[in-house]
């Protein structure tokens, strides 16, 4: 047995695992390979930027640690056969939703988590109302959550700051928060008030590259709050 070296320093207080997983789903799972695939999905899907989030067959098949873990359990199968076997079980159990779409030069199999948004996405695809066309997104290595970003780049997280970060996570895109923290660090304004001021201004005035990224030369605009008071 290879001994696990332990988790690195970081904030592990936020997990993207629905409570029903522990109370209802986990007691039903009797196959370790299926469990590994489900946990992989719960880790990978929150890191995807397209909404509703989905994983393609290729994204599962191009993750060596997942395949290695499945092959340990099914050494008589090839890596892709082991993966397909485990994925089929998650679909049969109703954890994942599987749908195949036709692209100009190939077909693509997509897997959605069986949530209200996932079911709606599959329905829309089946009825021809929507077809995902986004390029494959590299979701590895894992993106740090905003609590870890704040802790490592700004400072300690007090209960009040934790509440502020929780509100920001609810109100803003994670990419916005990450960029706001980056601007605060560059401007040496390492505090939650400054970060929140950036986010509020973006929400009020929009970000100015046509999509989401603001110009660096605009950074000094965030030295003042919405009332014209200097941000300290």
Describe this structure in words.
With 232 residues, the chain is mainly alpha-helical. The protein has 2 domains: 108 residues, Orthogonal Bundle (Arc Repressor Mutant, subunit A); 78 residues, Arc Repressor Mutant, subunit A (Orthogonal Bundle). It is 47% helix and 7% strand. The protein contains 10 helices and 3 strands. Strands 1-3-2 form a 3-stranded antiparallel beta sheet, sandwiched between helices. Helix 9 packs across helix 10. The longest helix has 15 residues. It is globular, with a radius of gyration of 21 Å. The termini are far apart.
List the helices and strands and how they pair.
Blueprint: H1 19-25, H2 32-44, E1 55-56, H3 57-61, H4 64-73, H5 79-93, E2 96-102, E3 107-113, H6 116-126, H7 146-153, H8 159-171, H9 174-186, H10 192-205
Antiparallel strand pairs: 1-3, 2-3
